[in-house]
Every structure is written in structure tokens, then in C-alpha cells.
Amino acid sequence: MNPVITRKPFSMSDQAKPAADSSTVAPTPAPRPNPATTASTPTAKAEVAFDIQDLCVFYGKTQAIKNVHLQIPAMSVTAIIGPSGCGKSTALRALNRMHELTPGARHTGKILMKGEDLYASHVDATVVRRRVGMVFQKSNPFPTLSIAENVLVGLRLNGMRDKTFLNNRLEESLRMAALWDEVKDHLNRPGMSLSGGQQQRLCIARALAVRPEILLMDEPCSALDPIATAKVEELIHALKSQYTVVIVTHNMQQAARVSENTAFFYMGSLIEFGPTEQIFMNPKNPQTEAYVSGRFG
Amino acid sequence: MLTGYARYRKYKSAFMSALAVFCAILVVTPLGLILFHLLKQGFSSLDWNFFTQLPRPEPETGGGMANAIVGSLEIIGLAMALAIPVGVLGGIYLSEYGSEKINFWIRFGADILNGVPSIVWGMTASAIAVIPFHTKSAYAGALALGFIAVPLILRTTEEVLVLVPNSYREAAMALGIPRWKIIVHIILRTAMKGLVTGVLLATGRIAGETAPLIFTVLGNDYWNHNLAQPIAALPLQVYNYAKSAYEDQHQQAWAGALVLIFMVFLLSVGVRVIATSRKRN
User: A31-292 domain in CATH 3.40.50.300?
Assistant: First the structure.
């Protein structure tokens, strides 16, 4: 039915960013024009990666996300901040349908990714997740796989067998994750043999190896020491030239350091969204101000 | 320096510790007694002939249980070939797919089946695979032993799969890997040692079963590799010889019991080796 979200073969030329595909889809309706979004990128209007329309997420009877409208710009880093339990992780997981894995989860509203409805009935969650990668709070390399196997597992288990392609992709992905120089001489050691910070970068390399269009990060540095954190942050900076990154973080300094735009969630609602500088220096909402100045949360 | 109450507590503690040690020793004593007795009675009859020759008719002495050893291995292998796919796939269902309500009833059922006396399984297998074909057979015996192994394998499979942290499932899901590939390539692989341990434990459990074989396998004094016919089995041979009137056959029964317990012992050692290698990784 829908020509856009289908299982795409892995292109050998690589980096075939499907931005062009969206020509087949009706232009994204913008229910709530957000001046902040355009303000953040002075060069003309920013492309929208995710258009979240009136999203509500429920776990059983509890409502985790309440009527969120949000447009996440492409090719930039968007931070989601807020106190524990505010729904920021749920909001992130809704973007690649990971929240559906929780028993009893359901949602209302729409999320359009480059114009396509992620939750349309013909859309396979597996395909969505191939296009929207994710890095988790705790590094989770597969314990039975080597470093190389960990990076390539997404490609291999999706049917890629070409050896030269896989080898190239292995090196590219590890380089993108700034891990290549540290592991290139022992790619066959178990992924678990690396240090915590290296394991997290291995997980980033694993997520990048399938070349998702968007990378979601759920508190990727919360289990890392400051040096490893700095490395991951550098990496996020480097990624945004090619990727849309959405990062949930507890650490407001981190949000300020890495992101162009910041969304502040509180009690399941989106309180404020705008350029990071404005959110931290000149928040419009008193609740945002209270949170970023450390008065609660 | 100790007050009366402190001294009382000290003695009480010493007494309870001693009691615990005594009970622990009590638990392993039968094992020591059985092994000692079996070695004493059976070891003298254990020779090369025991493993290579057929049983001899009664007035003659000597001979062996070669056919029974091979027959037992055939029946056990066949039983596990039946039980492993069913048990493992059922365990995968419980761990990865089933809803809480359905799982409750399946677990409940499996736990009851685990408690069903093995002779009942023998009768069941007999009704299914002996009576309609008018002959006892290795197939029927394997069916009976398979019935016993399935719920064991089901439960251990479920337990070791549930131990695989959810973060691995999530990581694999987030890579857009299809569910069944995640199960086969990530989850089963991560839990492989636990799975093998569970299968070996189940093998050890069915290896010594005798009652179900009486109903289904019958036994055989000759070589028979037609699995649709009665076949010799070690526990059956031990049972028949132990009832015999001839001293030589009694000796053979002791030797057979020794071999049987040694097979189970080897399986336990295998389980231990696998389990400790998991810790090292």
C-alpha cells in the first residue's frame, strides 16, 4: 500500500537518505506552527523529522503522555529533559514504537515521520525500528557475540551476507562511534570485554551500522564517567551532520552542551519546546524556569 | 566474661550448627552407601564381556548386557529427539510469547505432569503405541520417556530464557531484527548453556526409569535394531535379573545397576562442567 515504509534493501552505495522519498507523501500538516523550530536554524526552514500530533500514551490505566504536540527538526540534536517519571523516556520510545513492547501500552494521536504515519495499520514496527535506531541507558552488547559481530548483527540478521560490504560497514560504524582505533586490533574479542564507556560506544556503532535515519538516545551517558561522557557527547556533535538525534537526558548541562533544541516535559505534558539557548537562558514558562534553575525536579 | 545469656546463645548456636552439619551428612550418606554397595557387589562382574556380549541362557554363566546398553541409548536418544523440540518450543512460547493468563495454566499443567508417576506414563504410552500395534516396541518406550522429559525441559527452558535480560531483547528489537531471529540468534544463544544443562538433567532423569519400560519395551535377550519391536534396556535387564533365581544373574544385575548409576553420574558431571564454564565467561 504505502510506497514509503517498506522493507528497503541495503544499498551498497550507502547513505541513501530517503529524504527524497517524501515527495510521494502529502505535505505534513502543521497543527501548531512553532516559531522556535525555525528560529533555531537560521538557514531557511528546517525539515521536520517527527511531527507528533496530539500524542497520548497509556500504560494500563496510567497516562504517561498527555496530548503532546511537537515537531522535531531533522539533522539536528533535540534534547528531552524533565524530572523522573515525566514521560520523557516514553515519548522517546513512542518514536520507534518501542513502548509497544510494554504489556498494556496503547496510545492515541499520530506521529508522522517525514510525513508518514508510524502507526498506520500497514506499517510494520520492525521496519520502523530499522529506520529509527536506539541507544539505551545501560550499554547492552550481546554477551555471546564478539565486537565485530555485535556491530554487524543488525545487518546480518536482516539478511546481508556480502563480506566486503560488511567489513566496510564494520570499520565505518566503529569510526563513526569513535571506537575504531581502540578496538581494531581485537575485533574478535567478546563485546563484553570492553570498558563501560567503550561498550556504550559499541552499542552506538551497532545502532549506526544499520544506517537508521534517526537515532534515539535514552540517557546514554547516565552510567558513564565524565571522560566517557565527553567522548559520547563529541560523538553526538559529529553525528548531527548526518543524523537526526533525539536524546533524553537527566543532565541539564548535557542538554545545553549537545542540543540545538530542547523539549521540557513535566507530568506527561510538554511544557515548553524551543532552541536550547532560549530554554535555558530565557524560558517562557515559569515551570521550565523553575526546573532549569534547579528549583525542583 | 560471658554473661549467662550470652553463653546460652553461644551453646544454642553451636548446637544448631552441629544439627545442620549432621543433616547435611545424612543427605549424602545414602549416596555413599549405594555407591559402596554397588561397587562391592557389581564391580567384580564388570568385565569386557559385560559390555560386548549378549546375555546367556540360564544354566550358563558369563555373558553381558551389550544389547541392553545399546538399547537403552537408542530409547533415550529417541525419547530426547521427541521431547527436546516440544519442550524447548513450549518453553520459548512461555518465555517470549504467552500471555500471563495462558502461561499460568500451562505452567500449572506442566508442574502437575512433572509429578505424574512414571508408571502412569508407561500405561499411557502403552495405550497409544502398544495396544493399537499389537507389539511392544522401542518407539513406545521412547514415547513414555519422552512424556516424562517434556514438562521438565519445558520448565527449565522457560526458566533459563526468562533469565536473559530484557535489555538484549530491546537492543535487538531496536535494530529492527525480526522477532523469530532475535529468539534464535540472540536469546537462545545467550541461554544455550542453561538449555543444555536442562536437557542433560532431563536425560539423567529418564535414563533410570524402569516402570514405563515394563509396559512398553518388554526387553529382549538378543540384538534387535528394529525399533518397532521389543528391545533390551538396561533398567529392564537389571529388574529381570534381580528377580532371577540364579546367583550369576544377580551379579549381572549389580553390575548393570552400577553401569546405570555411572551413566547418570557422567551426565551430572557434564552438567557441572557446563554450568561452571558459564560462570567463567
Answer: yes
**pLDDT by residue (tens digit) across A39-61?**
444 334 568 999 999 999 999 99
Distance CA B254, CA B247 (A): 11
> Hey, where are the domains in chain A?
31-292
Nearest to A117 by CA among A2, A221, A260, A232: A2
Nearest to A129 among B168, B174, B189 (CB): B174
Dist CA A126 CA A10 (whole Å) = 15
Which of A129, A151, A156, A157 best probes binding to B when mutated, by most B CB atoms within 10 angstroms?
A157
CB B187 within 8 A of CB B164: yes
Distance CA A210, CA B175 (A): 7
Neighbouring C-beta atoms of residue A227, cutoff 10 Å? 8
Residues linked to residue B63 through DSSP beta bridges, in sequence order: B55
pLDDT for A1? 43
pLDDT average per 10 residues of sequence, chain A (297 residues): 44 40 40 42 64 94 94 94 91 93 91 91 92 93 95 94 95 93 94 92 94 94 89 90 92 92 94 94 92 79
Complex ipTM > 0.90: no
Q: Is B229 on the interface with A (CB under 8 A)?
A: no
> A195 by DSSP, 3-state: which?
coil
d(CA B234, CA B255): 10
Residues of chain B neighbouring A157 (CB-CB closer than 8 A):
172, 175, 177-178, 181-182, 185
User: Pairing relation of β-strands A261-266 and A269-275?
Assistant: antiparallel
Q: B215 by DSSP, 3-state: which?
A: helix
* Domain coordinates in residue numbering, chain B: 4-45, 51-280
The whole-angstrom separation of Cα A247 and Cα A218 is: 6
Beta carbons of A205 and A181 less than 8 angstroms apart: no
Phi-psi region of A155 (alpha: psi -120 to 50; beta: other; left: phi over 0): alpha
Fold of B51-280: MetI-like fold (1.10.3720)
**B39-58: pLDDT as tens digits:** 998 888 888 888 988 888 87
A223 vs B: CB within 8 A: no
How far apart CA A260 and CA B190 sit, in angstroms, is 40
Which residue from B minimizes the CA distance to A209? B175
Per-residue DSSP letter, A139: -
DSSP B227: T
C-beta separation of B208 from B260 below 8 A = yes
